[in-house]
Amino acid sequence: MTNSGWGRTESPFHAGEIAIQTRLGIQDRMDRQGRRIIREYLTEQHQKFFARLAYAIVGIVDEFDRPWTSILIGKPGFLSTPSDRLLKVVAKPLPGDPLKDNLTVGNDIGLLGIELHSRRRNRLNGIISSSDRNSFEVTVSQSFGNCPQYIQARTFEFVETSNSVSPQIKEINSFGESENNLIANADTFFITSAYQKESAGIAKGIDVSHRGGKPGFVRIDGEKTLTVPDFSGNNHFNTLGNIELNPSVGLLFLDFMWGDVLYLTGTAEVIWSGREISTYAGAQQLIRFDLQKGYLAKTSLPLCWTTPDFSPFLKDTGSWK
Fold it and tell me: Could you tell me the fold of the domain covering 15-159+166-312?
């Protein structure tokens, strides 16, 4: 397979992404860029990248049309590519993860392969083409690489977990002390968004994206609301383009110190203008999230992480204070 880029006549972007690109006067440039770097298959380089990962971020939409973001973990090799259009995942969701009930054949899925220590990341979205108790396969619809911006570098090692002690799982409908502490100290989270209308053709699907900032960059605005600065990126506007057409999103916060995992689902809006944006240096726009439901899984991550090496891109960003 040659690395020829996008081989179709129709755009790799859907109407929401194109609308934002057009509004900002960059649509023609982004169409050319998208056709060059977005593919319907995994390059050899990306296949090797996925094969060495020990974790990946996954996004799905449940039966109630709610997006959720999850982390899957396994020894390197748990992700493999039987072909350049197929990714096989041999891993089980963590306890309390909404993903476990939604790995159904025919469902859309998004996946972010990310290596925090090297700040490398590659994305794909596709359709679940097979699934059993221990694994599933994804037929690739779109695949492309992302830049290293705003990723805090961390190394990890596996830790032994007791099979006799199940993590404590708490369902939430508002933020309490534990959730507030995790969110307030976060320098990283992941967001799943989706636009699944058949009219979008090959550009439809689920996107999983990384967001990073200085600790405290996620502002807690009460018991159900978060506000986040959105920094400059690759200008694809996958996440914001999805929100433009479908406000439902899922967030994932990881407590890298204690191993807690916070799964949130709700709705988001993009704030494109106003004084509030200028109060956070580096913000191009803001994302405001309203919680509908969530789960906090205590000490469920079987990984131990080092303290972060903060991204050099953060020097041009501010804080809410």
Answer: Pnp Oxidase; Chain A (2.30.110)
